[in-house]
Amino acid sequence: MICQHEDPVEAIPFLERCLAIEEALHGSEATLSDLNTWIGQAGGVEFEDLEPLQLRRLAVKTEVFGETSNQVAAECQALAQRYGSNVPYRKARALLERSIAIKEKLHGADSVEVAEAVDLLAETSARLEKWKDVEADLQRSLELKEKIFGARSEQVARSLLAAAIVYANASKLQQSGTRHERIRKAVSAFDSGLNLLEERFGPDSFEVQNALEAMIRAYVECREFRRAEPLLKRLLAIREKAYGNDAPALLWILTELAKGYAEESVDEAEPMLERSFAMLRMLLDAKKPIFRPGIANLPGNGDGVLEQLVRASDRFRSNLRKRWGAAG
Prior knowledge:
By secondary structure, the chain is mostly helical. 77% of the residues lie in helices and 0% in strands. The longest helix is centred in the middle third of the chain and has 26 residues, at 176-201.
């Protein structure tokens, strides 16, 4: 009743008493039902209140099903994901490694189940910015997928692309020398993954377009416009060919090119800004402005496309004035 209508935390003393009685009468297995019910209804509960009961459920499952069981592996993963979102990284990693060890015994060291668990390990390391561990986890994942699916498989391609984005993200917080090394690894992993997708799906496929878009955003976020530029130009050419020169799908690409060129004060900035403003005006002035919601949700730093373009235009003109002043 308390769980259904009030704060679930207030139910904990009653739950613990109930669990103690159930265990005394029927053994620990009898407590699983109540533990599952309470944990399932504790969505808004602070982790420090939830942790002892989830650890208790893990201990019960280990006793009931044995260490080498799917139930214990799944519980380790579930608890690790809780830890991973609440910062105790080492606890999360130990649980995920425990889950991997169980799955290796159940399914074999080179199995899909183990590969999925290693991916979760890499994802947790990346989310908490443990870059040395991330690198080892990504390599472990790649080697597994090469063994399971083949060196030129789609799974390997996607693993390489994921690694490229992680390396790019890791570069944002690094010193100059380390940053360059991370970017070098990002470029290498992305090129290898993209080649596999091109080989499998074709150079203009949706899979290739999605990979280009994801890597562009990673490069833009870590202020590597010169790395993003050729990808932006390639994606622009693909979508112009597919949808025409005035398609809404081009607007965010044009905007990113305009912003990058304006920042670097190059000759391409002015025509790109003019084209971007013209397309935005055309879309907003349409008799049936069906694209307005899409325009509002285009990529950016929390600003609308118009705000991004105005800021880019101001930056370009400021850089231009400085250049003229220096020339004078």
